[in-house]
Amino acid sequence: MSDCSGPEDAKVVIIGSGFAGLAAAATLVKAGFKNVLVLEAKERIGGRVNTTKPFTENIIEVGANWIHGQKGNPLYKIAKEQNLLSEGACASRNMCLPRSVSSRDYFFKEDGKPVPKKIVDQVSSLFSKLTDKAFDDELAPKHRDLTLGAYLDDAFGESPLAATEDGQQVFEWCKRTECTDEACSSLYEVSASQISNYTALEGGFFNTLGPGGYRAILDVLLKDVPSETIKCNAPVKSIRWDLVKEGNCEDERCPVQIVCENGQSFEADHVIVTVSLGVLKEKGATMFEPALPANKLSAIKNLGFGIVDKIFLFFEKRFWPEDCEGIQMVWKEGPEDKDVYDSLSEGDAWKTTWFKKITGFDTVARHPTALCGWITGREALYMEKLQDSEIGDTCLRLLRSFTGWSVPAVSKMLISRWGSDSQVRGSYTFVPDGVDGVAAHKALASPLPPKDKSRGKRHLQVLFAGEATHVNFYTTTHGAYLTGVREAERLISFYAD
Ligand SMILES: Cc1cc2nc3c(=O)[nH]c(=O)nc-3n(C[C@H](O)[C@H](O)[C@H](O)COP(=O)(O)OP(=O)(O)OC[C@H]3O[C@@H](n4cnc5c(N)ncnc54)[C@H](O)[C@@H]3O)c2cc1C
Asked: What residue stretches are annotated with the Amine oxidase domain (predicted)?
């Protein structure tokens, strides 16, 4: 087909309207592609970016919230140029990770006593140093083949802090909290050495957007995409490819056919698949005809796609001190304690203590009377099945027993359920222990048919974009965006040759 047509005639279907899909669409349209169609299963665009205004005129980010890093980050650049970044008090972080613990984070033990600040500072700063070593690829040989959890335990064990009960318990909180960053159920399931493939961009981890949130950046991309290009409520059921045996100008048939759940079908020269790794795990083996090659299927199987959920609690009035940025919960026997982890690895006992996986409740930008709880992994998925009221009651019980403060009833709640969302099936990618992340991300990204098996230029029938296909920026919005641009540019140079 490419011998007879140029970008004006090429039919490109993009599946998914998250950052990857919209970046691909905008790049292609700007390059002169006239037949671009985005098929989106949901009734809204954005995918894992979901900026909502459920209760007031102020936004809540149910999905992505921050721009991670500034230097070399295309989304930071757009946000900066378009004046979309937050300034002043709202520009600060609103989530407490070990490397960003501030004196305004209140740490409590389950007996209601505060954890001595000195211990929190010492343990969290040691924890940051140890994780930095893994991110910077500076692990000692003895730690390279371990899980992240096992490496951290071993390295922390050499510190005198490990000899104290408070030290051990704050260390467990650090590991539990790091699970949100890795989107995993437990650090004992993540590879220690592979996380060095993730590249952290300079300029701060928590860059907060202004009142328009992430949606404002999507709107910038949408300016380049004519509205009729995007079709929402159009879940794709199957992708048939390799439909033309020999490419020549007489043969009018397109090599790809995309069939939606409602039976509507679209022919295309190229399809860019941007559905999440979670969706590929569930449907990758049946969605494609012919089936995906074995190396792609095993990449889909081997990479991890974890769950991170947010629990937004709204109160009539603030009950925490004005300087408090977050209430963090330190358990005597938390789920990321190795002995506890081992004892709960089989059976269902962990379900009765699912709430122990909540790390704490952070304050929420622009919502002075709201808190956001964080939970990950199998416990998050378990929570997703519960009624909001049960989750709310549990959170109130925790807040009351840990702080001893007078905590009023919750007035409203908003709970994300990313694991149960059939169009996403999780939150973001991680590299499990024993998996070669680089090889898996690359296998996931490679277009079909494989070049060595294609006839001439006809190999770009099915292309893959999305956060999970980026070797260094997986998990992030900017990673997703860059993969969309990457696949669009692949097509642009295909037609430029
Ligand atoms: C709770 C949470 C917090 C996060 N926080 C951050 C953060 O602070 N910073 C950051 O950088 N990243 C964050 N992320 C990750 C970030 O949101 C993602 O990496 C990014 O948005 C992924 O974009 P994508 O285009 O690859 O995939 P998606 O956004 O998942 O887009 C894929 C699209 O495909 C659609 N789709 C699925 N199946 C079909 C089908 N059969 N037919 C048609 N359409 C289909 C989906 O509905 C979706 O719209 C967070 C994610 C979550 C869930």
From this structure: 19-492
